[in-house]
Every structure is written in C-alpha cells, then in structure tokens.
Amino acid sequence: MTERYDxxxxxxxxxxxxxxxxxxQEGLSVALxxxxxxxxxxxxxxxxxxxxxxxxxxxxxxxxxxxxxxxSPTANRVDIAIENGYVGMVDREHFDEFLRVRAAEAxxxxxxxxxxxxxxxxxxxxxxxxxxxxKDAEPASLPTRYVIGADGARSNxxxxxxxxxGDIDYVIAYHEIIKAPANEAEAPDxxxxxxxxxxxxxxxxxxxxxxFPHGKHASVGMGTGVRNVDLKQATAALREASGLADCETVxxxxxxxxxxxxxxWDNGKDVVVAGDAAGVVAPSSGEGIYYAMxxxxxxxxxxxxxxxxxxxxxxxxxxxxxxxxHGMVFRVLGRMQDTWYRSDDxxxxxxxxxxxxxxxxxxxxxxxxxxxxxxxxWAHIRIFAKNIAHLTRxxxxx
Length: 398
What we know:
This protein has helices at residues 14-25, 48-53, 92-106, 156-161, 231-241, 289-309, 317-340, 344-353, 357-369, 377-391, and strands at residues 5-10, 30-34, 45-46, 63-65, 67-71, 77-81, 87-89, 109-120, 126-132, 140-149, 170-179, 194-198, 209-214, 217-224, 249-258, 271-273. With 398 residues, the chain is α/β, with parallel strands linked by helices. The strands form 3 sheets. It has a 7-stranded mixed β-sheet, with helices on one face. It is globular.
C-alpha cells in the first residue's frame, strides 16, 4: 500500500520548508513537494531575530548591513545607522535550498514536481496529486491526512481549497541580480554594507525601489500594484540613477507579492495555507522571509493539534495565533503605506520624517525584534505630532 503521510507540504520556500522541518522534528511523517529551479524575487533581508530563532548559519549570510539609506523623489537622502547589530542578507537561490535540505535531514521526504489538485477518496481522505518533474511523467499521488499549501501568492492550493482563496490583492515585484561593483571608483554611490530604499513615483508609483547588497552580487528592483508600469524599464532607471547600469546582470526574476493576510486560511477539514499563499507579507516594507517562516511554524502547530485531537477545526489556529502576535504590526504598517506612499509629496515628507532620531530608533527596534515598541511614550507623542504637521503641510517637505 502507498504510505499515507501525516502531512504533505506543497511549496519548499522559507514557509513550506520551515513547516516541513518542524513537523518532521516532531516525529510526524512529512512529504515536501517543490518545483525545482524557481527563485523568488526578494531583497533578501533577514533580521537578527530570524537568524537567532531559526539557527541560520553565518555562511548563509552573504552581507551584513549596518546602514539603511532612504532616498526621496528629489534625491534627499537619510542614512540610518543600524545600532547594536546588523541586518543580514541572504540569496534566495541558496537560502531556500538550505532550508529544504534541513527539512529533509529532519526526516521530511522531498518530491520535485508541480501541484495539480487535492483529491479525496470515498471516505473523504485526501491525497495530493502532483506531476513529477521527470519528462513525460504521469501524475502521482501522495495520500495524506492534512495538507499545508505554501505555494506562494496566487496559490493554486488556496484557489482550489479555501473560500475566497483566489481573491487577493498583490503588487508585482521584479528585480535583477547583478555583479556588485568591484570598488568605489566603479560605482561611487554603492556601498556593500548599505541598503538603499528609493521612494520615487518615477520608479514605483505606489511602493518603492531598492538596491540591496548581496556580497559579490546585489539585488536591484522595485514593486508596484499599478498594472501599466513597465517593471524592466523602471528597474533600468533605478540602476542608472544608482550608477549600476553597466554592472553585469546575472539573472532576473518577477513574482506577485500579496498585500495583506487573507481572512481565512483553512477549509475546515484537511487543508491550511501559509506564507505568501495566506497573504503574509508585511505592508509598507514588503518584508516576507521572517513572516513566512513564522507562518510555517504556526501552520505546523495547527496541523499537529488537529492530528492530536482528530479535530480539523483546529487548523484555524494557524491564522488565529499568527495574527494575535503580528496582526497589530501589519495594521500599523498598512496604514503607514496608505498614508505615505500615495504621492511624491507624501514620499518626500516621509523621508524627511526619517531624519528624526525617535523614528529611526523605534523603527529599527521594532524591525530587529519584530514587535511594536511602547516603552517610550513621549517619543510616540513626538512622532505623532510630526506626522500631523507633515500631513497638514504645517512644515516643509524637506
């Protein structure tokens, strides 16, 4: 007889690989299905909390960033030093495979192929149908008890199995991995330990562009939800403005990035989605790796409880627990994006606000430790007052 797995995880990115590793470590039988060769466009930033919580080895950190530079539409620049630590950078080409290998070492069985559907037998027991990568391969079946869909934004699992699962807002992200400049003379504006974030409607009318160092390489890209924007042309303009137009392009990638978590993550019986498939990317920043891995943990915990109690309703715990810990951060960042990204005047004022030392410290404390900081009430009051002053145009934009 074909083995019936406790869990089949669809998608081997940071979310799916984390969920598979977690469940395999708990002694459950786990299958992990992933498409080979797909690399998600991603700036690759990971905070210290992720590196610590998930024991990411130093050889996966391709750069250690000590400064973030915000650049306004009029080229005003604000450099923010990262105090008491650094932001790590990973290359998804290698980082995702590292996570998949770790899941396999924990006991998960790896399969390479494309998800087709979830089928159910006469007793309602699910099987995941997928097409193996091998040429002319016939669809194969993996009988299971539960399914975790971690197959990215515009998830086929969510579309087929979750109510309103195909109805999700997103931006399209595009980046080019280039060979980093060899020295300062080659590109005076580039620094291998500084991330540049470009708030300019000419690059992105509703999001931002970025230049993120990756050691010997760099990620240069942008995102937008405006459908008529030429992503390649915008990225070319960003490279030109950053002095990187002549750098060799190694590869290019594009993909949708969800804007907010879905209202429901499970079908109430045997499927739960997580990561980008559940819409878990931070508004405003577009940060996804940390939240994807946390979401993979939440989905794994929910499946484990559902198995232990024989109660599929427990799958709803994945969303409940994740949003309890991170929902407030997502709401605050969503309001921030709606407020400051809507025009170049607002973007100019936002970058001006970033000069404020209170904004800098509270922002990076929240980023580094992944929680809102409420320990400094007077700093929050000052920031609120400055926000109002800019929104009402009581102060100049720069």
